[in-house]
Amino acid sequence: xxxxxxxxxxxxxxxxxxxxxxxxxxxxxxxxxxxxxxxxxxxxxxxxxxxxxxxxxxxxxxxxxxxxxxxxxxxxxxxxxxxxxxxxxxxxxxxxxxxxxxxxxxxxxxxxxxxxxxxxxxxxxxxxxxxxxxxxxxxxxxxxxxxxxxxxxxxxxxxxxxxxxxxxxxxxxxxxxxxxxxxxxxxxxxxxxxxxxxxxxxxxxxxxxxxxxxxxxxxxxxxxxxxxxxxxxxxxxxxxxxxxxxxxxxxxxxxxxxxxxxxxxxxxxxxxxxxxxxxxxxxxxxxxxxxxxxxxxxxxxxxxxxxxxxxxxxxxxxxxxxxxxxxxxxxxxxxxxxxxxxxxxxxxxxxxxxxxxxxxxxxxxxxxxxxxxxx
Amino acid sequence: xxxxxxxxxxxxxxxxxxxxxxxxxxxxxxxxxxxxxxxxxxxxxxxxxxxxxxxxxxxxxxxxxxxxxxxxxxxxxxxxxxxxxxxxxxxxxxxxxxxxxxxxxxxxxxxxxxxxxxxxxxxxxxxxxxxxxxxxxxxxxxxxxxxxxxxxxxxxxxxxxxxxxxxxxxxxxxxxxxxxxxxxxxxxxxxxxxxxxxxxxxxxxxxxxxxxxxxxxxxxxxxxxxxxxxxxxxxxxxxxxxxxxxxxxxxxxxxxxxxxxxxxxxxxxxxxxxxxxxxxxxxxxxxxxxxxxxxxxxxxxxxxxxxxxxxxxxxxxxxxxxxxxxxxxxxxxxxxxxxxxxxxxxxxxxxxxxxxxxxxxxxxxxxxxxxxxxx
Lengths: 375, 375
Fold this sequence. Notes:
The structure is a homodimer.
Chain A: E1 2-6, H1 7-17, E2 32-38, E3 41-47, E4 51-58, E5 64-68, E6 70-75, H2 76-85, E7 90-95, E8 100-105, E9 108-113, E10 132-137, H3 138-149, E11 163-169, E12 172-178, E13 182-189, E14 198-203, H4 204-213, E15 220-225, E16 229-234, E17 237-242, E18 261-266, H5 267-279, E19 285-290, E20 294-301, E21 305-312, E22 315-318, E23 321-326, H6 327-335, E24 341-346, E25 353-357, E26 364-368
Antiparallel strand pairs in A: 1-5, 1-7, 2-3, 2-6, 3-4, 4-17, 7-8, 8-9, 10-15, 11-12, 11-14, 12-13, 13-26, 15-16, 16-17, 18-22, 18-24, 19-20, 19-23, 20-21, 24-25, 25-26
Helix pairs in contact in A: 1-2, 3-4, 5-6
């Protein structure tokens, strides 16, 4: 291998894949980054047991020139730290001795001991399989994942709840996540989707990483779902994630179909008030009191004090209500809603509160189970 | 107490004093902030056993109006978090019921349970004592503390080394700190200093906090040293710190008086090179090789690899040398030197390396003890 590459391109690629490096893996090769220089460009790949990320830099003569092909796996942390400290524009990567990568940049020369590239896990190219394929605007995908993945469980006691359910049927894709107390659901219309229906449960952690890798530019993300894995592809990036096996709990009977009251409030006002009131909330429990024209928010902590805040209602339809819920959970939901106003539906003391971001698509729904309090 | 105050002034004052709050103190009152509203303004005070910080906002009719005097100690964390979340410009602080502070801001009302202000430690006004007094430009004081305090020890095994020695004698102030491996010393000329000589050892941690509180503006810091404490005053701020008892180790025989070689290098180049080489350094040990026109930096980690970097010499006087030292320590020193170039003096294999920032004052000296290596 003999490759000339600009520092920016190299840093960008390494920065993308380093999220998938299995830092504490007992398998040494998974602590590395697989660099493969071919005639068409250089790929950088990192992999842990759950996710593989690959970033490809095409040979364009400007940011990259491949003078001799080759491949090696090198220790990620040292490589990243060394490159990061350099400020020379051009970096030369060369394999002169077997399994040793020489990095020359400006006045410095680094020799890194590597491992055999052939032993590194590769991204399956799916020969012989016929995966379900769909395409989505990257920005839309990013915002959808941000909204839904936030409510997935982080506890491994029920592994299925650490995933986000993707259910595709008749040109519509439904994403659902829940941790048992909260639920988020968003339905998107998919154009040009031709294959069969599918259900897949994708680890929320991997999904969040994928969405962070997507740039905000107006590009398209391709998604391929096969039996036990999902692949995301956009703009030189390929991410493969394992799927979670099992059946996602049915959420049909959980979402209240009718309601006793609906209120509409300004989102920014409400978020500020909930954040403020949650500071003083014992165990994060805050109380909402909806009257004819205001939503009162209250909380208290014994021996410390109490707080009361008011948000004006934009609309109110139905009866007044009082309910207690987890303020932190409410903040998570509001922070991830890109909209001007929020619709809140009350369906009775023991039913979950329905929160609907009032955006142009109206495709997102959140549930929060109320907390029972004594007084 | 009934006080109207702008959010910015309030946040600023609380932000200053919160560093001295004893968050985990078994004495509940030390977890609080003492608010005292008098005819001339409102003071905010926080104190742990080692340091007390007081920020005073004068009554000017614009940012603060005191309508009724009074005092209360309130829980710092809740107060800070609640005020921070508000975006209303004006905050009203009022004591309506005994030991309860009511905070009204915009649409929210908070009641915080407080404690008796009379039980809070106060900053000694020094009646009956005649402290040594001196004045210094705040920016100069800040940069001096930054340079010297960084090498103080953080281990409590020898408490005296966690302090910075202030030695004032004949209009000159000498600051020294050392952790046994490194040493930093800076001598400043003090104008208008009239009192007797003094020696004081100030905890480096407190000193760093003080220097962070000082703004970069062209103001003056007053320092008052009495028997067992030191007071810093600048721009409405008062900080009082306990002193460390004992005698600071003599450093006279530690600093080499003659040298075999002196080199001059560009600071930015050297810092970049040391940072880069230290990444690959086993136990942070890097090797410096000074030849006629370059300084070579080398390091290696077994089974990972090695690195070599070069910095051109601006000047070289004396014999070539090779020495090994702790790269992290070298980085600390270089990062805190505001100068174009660095002078390095070599006085033999077993003598400490002398590092002199080549700035206009030429008043700072660093020592690093070399590491003995086998090859």
